[in-house]
Please model this.
Amino acid sequence: MRRPSLQTLIALLLTVAWSLGLGIAHLRGDIPFIDGAEATLTNLRNTLGGHSQPPDLVTIVAIDDETSRVAGRYPLPRATLARIVDAISALGPRAIALDVLLVDPGDEAGDAALEQSLKRTKVVLAAAGIFPESRQRVVDNSNEPLARVPSALQFLEPQQRFADAASYGIVNLQTDKAGTPRFVPMLFRSGERIEPSFSLRVVSAASGEQTTVLSDHIKIGDRSIHTDTGYLMPLSFYGPRGTIRTVSANAALSGQLPEAAIRDHVVVIGATVTGGGDVFPTPFDPVLPGVEVISTSITHLISGDGLVRDRNVRFIDLYFAVGLPIAVVSLLSWRRSTIGLIMVLGVVLLWFAINVSAFKHGIWLSAALPIAATVPPALLFGAIQLWLDRRRATRFAEQSQLLQRIQAPGLAEHLARDPGLLAEPVHQVAAVVFIDINGFTGLSESIGPTAVRELLNGFYNLVDEEVTASGGAITSFMGDGAMILFGLPHPKPTDPANAAHCCIRLAHRMRDWLSALPQGITSRIGFKIGAHFGTIVASRLGGGDRQQITATGDTVNVASRLMEVAAGHHAEAAISADLLLAAGRDSTPFKDGHLNGPIETSLRGRAGSLTIWLWRDRP
Model:
């Protein structure tokens, strides 16, 4: 494998620096400029995963439009809330979560009734934090874990009489820019004061186990709750509204609560009344009630079926953020071709499949971070490589144009003495030799224009040296092949012998030249030679300042077709019997290597058969 160029090494170093910087920033918390993309991609993965059935652990008792109509107003009177709590409590729930803020005093009779109801059962009340901005982003860079929990200006707590009768927790959620809840903070702070979330307090009350805060996670009893930076628990939605079993609170008021939905369940009381409760956009529902979001988080905490996004997952994100762009840039630099692009697409699809599969199995790997780490370096590197390739292609075209102006090098002296040479077509006998590189087209697609130019220059120099030494004339280089004539400008008796000698010399030189190339090139290309002797038509073609001396006729066509015969018989050269007869038994092919013949063969596009000899070098 060829060594990477200096440009590629610089590109890889810059790619590592960029991706590593993003990855380290990601370890410390979300990166604002890719949050929007991550939210969109998370919604996409949620949608791809489809709806799921939540565990039968939580029941919502909804203060809905019917309940509000029966009660006569919304917010419900405190006495009505007390009746709902008592009705639920009578059926033996694990705990009751009252997702209603009780921050203002009501009428004394109603408050007293609710206070007594709260004392008779296990109830957790909702409190709220007031934050300087709508999103509770962690901005403290302290290494102290508790310093990174969302910090509120103050807490809106239940009235003291209710707080004395029941425990409470902070009900706030953390949303993205679109307003979709992404995390439920497990802890909140205000000054030096730390309070648990509403969901965490409910689960602790339902299980009867203590909550323990550790440096990187939270434990409820012996069970660990994996959290993200700042003790944030990711949310994963089960489906649209009603996916978590919901019962109207009016059923509690009318004594029609289904016991199976209440007994040994956590019951969350919250508002779904039109215009009366919080609603949030989610991947499955544009207006999911806030009480269902809270119930989702409680279900996650109890069952452990939520998304895992902790420090270990963020380290995996870092590895992908560094590894994916390095792989893409490396492949783009290694194979700038259709194969290279297919390999890049394969790597990206593999990463996408891993990411989606991990999400489906409850591991929230970042999708936006690897994309942000990969796209800018790949686009920049691709643009630079395209610009450099165009420069190389332009330079190669200019050099090729200059080479093409040098027609028939063996005739240079004759052209200098007679500028009118072959201005009119001439019929005469001549020996015609063709040589061509096998497999060159496929190789050129993978090694790039610079390597192609170097390879062709080596081939052209080799052919020019041997043809000049044998007294022939190169009438044209045709990409990866050459046409050689012996008999211009005037035929000589030695032309057939010289042509036969040139065939053998070219075969020897080509074998030596190919063996000296890198193994990856040598194994992919070869050569073939065809030679014939007969009548040709020599003339000039073209006009203006660009003309070419060439030969046409049946002899030329036969010599060209003989290359196919050589390749088809795995020989290095196919030489017509006409040429060898004219060259004589003392010519080089009879003395050097292995000559097999005579053989009768047919040629593509030509009627009848031709007698030929096949030549191979001795092993």
